[in-house]
């Protein structure tokens, strides 16, 4: 880990180190490295059955991790929003109490079957990039019609944030929430008609499937190791 990376987490950590022996003393050891380096790191990281290994290494199966450590393994797929404590995270097989406490401090998490981790990687792991793209497009439409770029960015981003929070706090279906904004003869329904007549659902679905397929490809690289 670089000095810059260590400095970036120093305020949130009791101690920072580049020494694996020191890191291995923690009750929960978080493995947040690129998939290709997981084997090398675990070969040098000695953990006991009393410890937990929380792996955020994308597409690396639980079986591969368990074959290289005695620790209890929890595999997770967080996303970039952990930086603002609004993360969405999928974990498998189940989160221990300690892992649940860590993840809850960073946002929301769900427990899923490992067979679902590739699609979760696409939806919540890659999803922020897709949302950023849509925010950019919404803001650009505002700029094109006269809004200041900074103002359009705030309005578009806050709109996504508010809509997302509404979904999380509401028991209504997404269709019902759309209807709640789209009154007959109003402005929203005119825009929704354009979306309904477009192939935006197909394109977004294709983006998710492409990310899922790549996650599956990476996972297969570990099946014979």
From TrEMBL:
Residue ranges of every copy of the Pyrroline-5-carboxylate reductase dimerisation domain listed in the record: 114-217
GO molecular function, one term: pyrroline-5-carboxylate reductase activity
Localization in the cell: Cytoplasm
Domain of life per record: Archaea
Pathway(s) where this gene product acts: Amino-acid biosynthesis; L-proline biosynthesis; L-proline from L-glutamate 5-semialdehyde: step 1/1
EC numbers for this chain: 1.5.1.2
Chain sites annotated for binding NADP(+): 32-35
Chemical reaction(s) catalysed: L-proline + NAD(+) = (S)-1-pyrroline-5-carboxylate + NADH + 2 H(+); L-proline + NADP(+) = (S)-1-pyrroline-5-carboxylate + NADPH + 2 H(+)
Sequence ranges assigned to domain Pyrroline-5-carboxylate reductase catalytic N-terminal in this UniProt record: 16-58
InterPro entries named among the record's database cross-references: 6-PGluconate_DH-like_C_sf, NAD(P)-bd_dom_sf, P5C_Rdtase_cat_N, P5CR_dimer, Pyrroline-COOH_reductase
Coiled-coil ranges per UniProt: none
Claim: ATP-binding is one of the keywords in the record: no
Keywords: Amino-acid biosynthesis, Cytoplasm, NADP, Oxidoreductase, Proline biosynthesis
Any one annotated GO CC term: cytoplasm
Functional description taken from the UniProt entry: Catalyzes the reduction of 1-pyrroline-5-carboxylate (PCA) to L-proline.
Name of the protein described by the UniProt record: Pyrroline-5-carboxylate reductase
Gene label: proC
């Amino acid at each position: 880990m670089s000095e810059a990376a260590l400095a970036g987490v120093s305020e949130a950590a009791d101690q920072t180190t580049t020494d694996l022996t020191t890191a291995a003393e923690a009750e929960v050891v978080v493995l947040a490295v690129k998939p290709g380096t997981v084997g090398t790191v675990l070969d040098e990281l000695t953990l006991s059955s009393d410890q937990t290994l929380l792996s955020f290494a994308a597409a690396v199966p639980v079986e591969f991790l368990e074959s290289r450590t005695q620790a209890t393994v929890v595999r997770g797929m967080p996303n970039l929003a952990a930086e603002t404590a609004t993360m969405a995270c999928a974990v498998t097989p189940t989160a221990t109490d300690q892992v649940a406490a860590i993840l809850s401090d960073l946002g929301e998490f769900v427990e899923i079957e490992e067979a679902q981790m590739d699609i979760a990687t696409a939806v919540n792991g890659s999803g922020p990039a897709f949302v950023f793209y849509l925010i950019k497009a919404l803001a650009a439409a505002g700029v094109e019609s006269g809004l200041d770029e900074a103002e359009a960015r705030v309005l578009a981003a806050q709109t996504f944030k508010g809509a997302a929070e509404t979904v999380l706090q509401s028991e209504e279906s997404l269709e019902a929430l759309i209807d709640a904004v789209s009154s007959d003869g109003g402005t929203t329904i005119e825009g929704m008609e354009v979306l309904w007549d477009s192939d935006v659902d197909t394109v977004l679905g294709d983006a998710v499937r492409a990310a899922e397929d790549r996650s599956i490809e990476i996972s297969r690289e570990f099946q014979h190791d």
